């Protein structure tokens, strides 16, 4: 019996996050990274050498032409996501793109239109939605452990270095709390609550360069409310968490965008803490999702559908209107 060929990824960008992706791929037998490209060829070669990647490029397009990968992981800064996503569409190449995938609804609409018209898979790398503790929390909600949902909160924040050259505060690199961390809060909380968002109100504080550094978002659902806080101005520490309140109790998820546990509090019962002691690299799950979707001929993930990314893109438009 002929051995099934490995799924071939190529990587665009050689920064910090690309290393985590390469580490994750190394944990999956069914796939490999065959090429990496960066505007800085030295960086691309360094990552290629570290992870045993056969080819390194300083041209994203040439990599697509030469390698014809099964999918591309876009790991560059947010400002370049749209152009590289469109480049991949032009070369009929499926994409997994780092969050925030786009800076505006206009960008999202354009790429997803091409995805649908050409039948090319596209997904935002919202890896947190695949984490076992987040899945467990949603299972508790669906099982009715906390009764009817009454309120949801998600607080996320750290003190970003106040250096206009880094990506956090640099408008030219797609800087802003909304793109970097609010996207986690919105996607995770709305996914957990599982109800359509019927209304959104936003308050934001901006730098002198017009970059959002603190955001507070109020969400209106059919049966409850949600509140999101995202900031580059404060280390929230133990207060960085998602909490879903219900008529019978609550679920608390510490550091919900990257944590490994969730806690169930039901009135009249002992608290339950569920811990994930198996995950080595949380990117593994989203990579497996991409492979499965593409092998089934799908153009979007049911967990991170195009519509989810459209919603966050519309939220960004509100923050920067």
From TrEMBL:
Residues 7-120 form the Gfo/Idh/MocA-like oxidoreductase N-terminal domain. InterPro entries: Gfo/Idh/MocA-like_OxRdtase_N, Gfo/Idh/MocA_domain, GFO_IDH_MocA-like_dom, NAD(P)-bd_dom_sf. Transmembrane segments: none annotated. Signal peptide: none annotated. Residues 134-251 form the GFO/IDH/MocA-like oxidoreductase domain. Pfam families: GFO_IDH_MocA, GFO_IDH_MocA_C3. Keywords: Oxidoreductase. GO terms for molecular function: nucleotide binding; oxidoreductase activity. Belongs to the Gfo/Idh/MocA family. PANTHER family: OXIDOREDUCTASES, TRANS-1,2-DIHYDROBENZENE-1,2-DIOL DEHYDROGENASE. This is Gfo/Idh/MocA family oxidoreductase. It comes from Blautia liquoris. The lineage of its organism: Bacteria, Bacillati, Bacillota, Clostridia, Lachnospirales.
